[in-house]
Amino acid sequence: MALTAIEIYKLLPKTNCGKCGVPTCLAFAMKLANKQAELSACPDVSEDAKTQLQESAAPPIRLVTVGTGEQAVEMGNETELFRHEKTFYHPTAYSLIIEDTLSPEELEAKVKEASELGFERVGQILKMGMLAVKAVSGDPAKFAEAVKTVSSKTSLPLILISDNPGIMEEGLKIASGKKPLIHAANKDNWEAMANLAKQYECPLVAFDDRGLDELAELTQNIKKAGVADIMLDFGKKSLGEAMRLLTIIRRLSAKKNFRPLGYPVILSLEGDPAKEALHATIFTMKYTAALMLNDISKWKMFPLFTLRQNIYTDPQIPIQVKPELYEINNPNENSPLLFTTNFSLTYFTVAGDIENSKIPSYLQVVDTEGLSVMTAFAAGKLTPEMVVEALEKSGANTKVKHNQIVIPGMVARMSAKLNEKSGREVLVGPRESSGLPKYLKGLIKG
Description:
The structure is a single chain. The protein is of the alpha/beta class. The chain folds into 3 domains: 5-57, Electron transport complex subunit B, putative Fe-S cluster (3-methyladenine DNA Glycosylase II, Chain A, domain 3, Orthogonal Bundle); 64-311, TIM Barrel, CATH 3.20.20; 325-445, Rossmann fold. The chain is 41% helix and 16% strand. The strands form 5 sheets. Strands 10-9-8-7-6-3-12-11 form an 8-stranded parallel sheet, covered by helices on one side. It has a 3-stranded mixed sheet with strand order 13-15-14, with helices on both faces. The protein has a two-stranded antiparallel sheet with strand order 1-2. It is globular and about 80 Å long.
């Protein structure tokens, strides 16, 4: 049972030192009770209290890490049912299933396909998270060879799929240094799989398709066996049933603090590519930590990547770019000077349209706390004074020898005051950045 804020407060040092980031121990206790803080933030808590508070202070959904180094994938540690309440933290990790019956050439082709799939959107690289090697052959040596081939060709974290402990161990001997995810322990093999997870220090999937009661019992057995990093898989279900189970798991863990189901969920979506795409879309929104796919065609994955980015972007903090002077198409001292805001979508749209114009230009990005042009202007976050300050700070005034500046058409109202404050001739650009190529070509000819 989770401790109340008062029960937690009684175990804290009560010094009100503020080292944890909040002014009082009672406030910190309330944050711990609501899963909004980590106990480690308090440097003075006693060892005795740590032991008592560890379970209560732990996040409702355990953080599980697969892989090592920069490519490691973190899953879990979510606290909310709805992203607008706070945010979601760890984007759904997509994985391609690669069967061990493929030839070495086919294995390498699959790895290359997954490793090269991705693109950049508003400053973020969107890509695959893991690769899953599935033991279909039933041959331990063949599985080990497939794991070796895949592991040698990618730095992406691995998932090893087999319900046979003997086959799984052969794969772990090859890939244990990469900390792969073991898929999966079930009601028949969980003791052997738990021993492998402990021996090779890898996270373990608990699989039971009979129901959540049985799945909860399985995770408790695995935890008692000494494995803490667990993920859940309830097997193949209809879309409606899967959504029901995902919602129950999230509600029980995040809101009721039910520890036996307080783990991230991983599901396999093997099947028809179109149906796979539909289910992946739904499960990305609610509430899977990882999805294993048979098909990763671009028509499917690019929309999924974009959806995932939108879902896991903090709704309270707009994506921003660094406010500075950007050089596009190798400008010189006579190139046009424009400005926009540091809202990522605005910046990348404007920068892309300038790039498409082929006109060398300078683009000054003004810090508007991540707001778009019109929103920032209306909120008083984009003023002539701020533009002047940004130009001075970035050195734009020394890089261009002419006296002109192009402003977004939506804020034409600020032209007179900007002229007064900066001393520059203010040119009003198009209202939409899509008009920039034509505008800039006309400006240069003029």
